[in-house]
Amino acid sequence: MNEKLYQMLHSAATADKAKALLSIDLLSNNPVGIGDHTTEDFYKNAQEALKTFAGAHERLEILEKYFQPGKQVI
Question: On the CB side of 68, how many CA atoms lie within 13 Å of its CA?
Answer without folding.
Answer: 5
